Amino acid sequence: MRIFLACLIIVLTFAGCSGGNRNNRVQIQRLEYDSGQSGETLIRVIDSKTSARLGESAFVTIEGSPGIPYSITCSYLLEHNAYTSMETKTANDEGLVTFKWNISQNTTPGSYKIVISGDGESLTLPYTVAD
Question: Which of 75, 95, 94 is nearest to 86 (CA)?
Fold first, then answer.
């Protein structure tokens, strides 16, 4: 997606700088990036509760590779100060890991992000804290 946006900006920049002929047509073509992998992450969300109120709990259960350590990193504001928390757990024999966290009464309501990583893969999810 980043490559697509960079190409789009370059195309639009050159199209705007071509001058002279006002009948110039810009053809935008989507460029695909092949990383040599199938494009699917090995981390799948099995179950989650990523919207919670102050004082409640949230969780995400993922499926990955058995016996692999997975880490979750959560960013949030606590009394308007930025914090990041991280926890690492090892996937069970079925490749499942559940991460659970409590939403403090002092957490600033809003949208935040979770990054789950392990086995060379990562997955970013949003979570929301409400009053």
Answer: 75
Residues 6+ apart with CB under 8 A from 67: 90, 91, 93
Residue 11's φ and ψ, nearest 5 degrees, are -60, -45
Per-residue model confidence as pLDDT tens digits over 109-126: 999 999 999 999 999 999
**Neighbour count for residue 60 (Cβ, 10 Å):** 22
Give tens-digit pLDDT for 5-56: 333 333 333 333 334 444 434 333 333 323 334 445 689 999 999 999 999 9
Scan for tokens 């060379």, then name that residue.
120
Structure tokens at 88: 């690492």
SS3 of 4, please? helix
C-alpha closest to that of 105 among 51, 53, 36: 53
Could you count the other beta carbons within 10 Å of the beta carbon of residue 3? 11
Whether residue 70 contacts residue 97, with contact meaning beta carbons closer than 8 Å, is answered with yes
CATH architecture for residues 44-130: Sandwich (2.60)
All structural domains of the chain with their residue ranges:
1-33, 44-130
